Amino acid sequence: MSDIVISAKDLGLTFQTGDGPIHALKDVNLDVRQGDFVSFIGPSGCGKTTFLRVMADLEQPTAGTITVNGTSPEEARRARAYGYVFQAAGLYPWRTIGGNIRLPLEIMGYSRDEQARRTADVLELVELGGFEKKYPWQLSGGMQQRASIARALAFDADLLLMDEPFGALDEIVRDHLNEQLLKLWDRTGKTICFVTHSIPEAVYLSTRIVVMSPRPGRIADVIESPLPRERPLDIRDSREFIEIAHRVRDGLRAGHGDD
Amino acid sequence: MGWLLGAVAAWLIGWQINSRLARRPLSRATAFAGPVIFGLTVILIWECLVRGLDISPVLLPPPSQIIQTFGASLPLLWRDFVQTVVKGALTGYVLGCSAAVLLAVAIDRFPFLKRGLLPVGSFMAALPIIGLAPILVMWFGFDWQSKAAVVVVMVFFPMLVNTVEGLSDTGAMQRDLMRTYAAGYWKTLFKLRLPAAMPFIFNGLKIATTLALIGAIVAEFFGSPTKGMGFRISISVGQLAMDLVWAEIVVAAIAGSAFYGAIALLEKTLTFWHPSQRGRM
Fold first, then answer.
1. Between chains, do A108 and B181 touch, taking CB under 8 Å as contact?
2. What is the total count of domains within chain A?
């Protein structure tokens, strides 16, 4: 088995709207390897979220091919190959935190014991032990988002797709969650695709940074990060970090040059 | 003259007590006492005015007489209550509401039903009950079955519309989430859409409680066995026995409030998570 998890070739997606076609993605070529932490960064309208949704079989490409685990995105979705974290936590208010995390497990037919064990495990992983019986609306936004990550982790898919999961949170909570996410990635060895519009977040988290530009949505630059796997928060003051951040910014600016 | 002064006194005293209560911090006791005192004051004034102005009991009997009649005809009232509320209204309510929910699920599943059946539903809702009731009495006989049928017709539409509305009240993200789990139609229905529709369903259920009671009582005006609240009201009016009419109204008021209260209580326990209920836990 190859270690390529996601492979996109000449991928394109055009939305037909009343104002004419919108090229959300055009000629996108990218391979994501097993264990990669890939960030997608770019201004709004660059197709980063659309790309993630295509991987998850929530949107259908109109050109090119994409495979997830060597199969079509639909087969991957049916095989429950990935966990998806949305921009908002989207927890069901009628279920407790534990109940929300059990939701995918119930749907996928895990036994009761297994549900309880996995729920306890992932709650521990996102440091929400003891909050199992609380309702989502009794928790802060950051805790809700952590619970939604736990929910995506519960069925232990090897691939994690995250769409600006920390976009709505304040800087301090965000730093903390970034740190936790890195630890989790390091511990579990999962492949993570992460959409963001924050340069420091992308540089801090990723092994590879995919810079995208809009109209049509396309890849402007792919940056391999030389940073080590072990990343304390203050690595953000290092010279290497700042250099990568510069390169990302340059890529973003180049993409913006045409408007 | 003494009775009229009594009416004024009752008004002033009730007013005094309640305005004093209103100035005290809100607690369970004051929140409960306010409406009770208001109600008692209204009844006292009513009693005094009817007696003081010597109003004919045919126009308005005094509350004391209504209470007396109520106490004296308890077995009769109970029999009417069972006939009208338990057999007619409740049966029709359960049948009508569950049929509406099932049909709403079907309508939601097959959009062509939505185009075909929703207009039929609104047509049924537009039918006047006094036109419909005699027909249903002809079809289903004089006993409670025809009353239940009238209730079914009355509660069906509000229940249907509310449930259809509720089933479409899920966000795109919540549906996407179920899709990423590769959850099928039924799992999505039971784990996401029905729970999300609960506040809407309870809205329908609450509206339907009052409609069910009205339907069951009014339908009895068009033929019924010699029992039932509607039957009793129409007979007693003919006999100018207004105290018994009023006693039946008291029964209807108590039954209606209890019915509505029970559904509201159930709503509070089942949709405690909804923002409209959260503050009241």
1. yes
2. 2
pLDDT in tens, A14-33: 888 888 888 888 888 888 88
Which residues lie closer than 8 Å to A32 by C-beta, 6 or more apart? Answer: A4, A5, A6, A7, A38, A191, A193
CA distances for B12 relative to A55, A111, B19, B51, B153, angstroms: 74, 68, 11, 19, 47
Q: Please list the ranges in chain A whose pLDDT falls under 50.
A: 1, 259
Domain assignment of residue B146, yes or no = yes
- Which candidate from A84, A90, A107 shows the least CB-CB separation from B187? A107
pLDDT score for A259: 47
Determine the pLDDT at residue A213.
Answer: 87
Helix (H) or strand (E) holding A4: strand A4-17
Provide the β-strand partners of residue A39: A194, A209
User: Which residues of chain B does A79 touch, with a Cβ-Cβ cutoff of 8 Å?
Assistant: 182
User: For residue B11, what pLDDT is reported?
Assistant: 92
Predicted ipTM of the assembly: 0.85
In a domain, B103, yes or no: yes
CA distance B273 to chain A (A): 5
Q: CA A36 to CA A156: how far, in whole Å?
A: 17
Do residues B110 and B23 share a domain? no
Domain match, B6 and B118 both: no
Please count the CA atoms within 13 angstroms of the CA of A136 that sit on its side-chain side: 21
The residue segments making up the domain with residue A111 are 90-156
Claim to verify: residue B27 and residue B80 sit in the same structural domain? no
The identity of residue B37, as a single letter, is I
- B54: contact with A, CB 8 A cutoff: no
d(CA B133, CA B219): 5
On whether both B101 and B171 belong to a single domain, the answer is yes
Question: A219 and A107: one domain?
Answer: no
Q: Do B181 and A93 touch (CB under 8 A)?
A: no
Residue span of the structural domain in which B29 resides = 2-55
**One domain, residues A169 and A64:** yes
Structure-token pair, residue B12 = 């002033």
Ranges of residues in chain B with a pLDDT under 50 are 281
Residues of A contacting chain B (CB within 8 angstroms): 56-58, 77-80, 82-84, 86-88, 90, 92-94, 103-104, 106-108, 135, 137
Nearest C-alpha in A relative to B177: A84
pLDDT of residue A252: 85
Among A124, A156, A188, where does a domain finish? A156
What is the reported pLDDT for A257?
A: 53
- The verdict on residue B64 lying in a domain is no
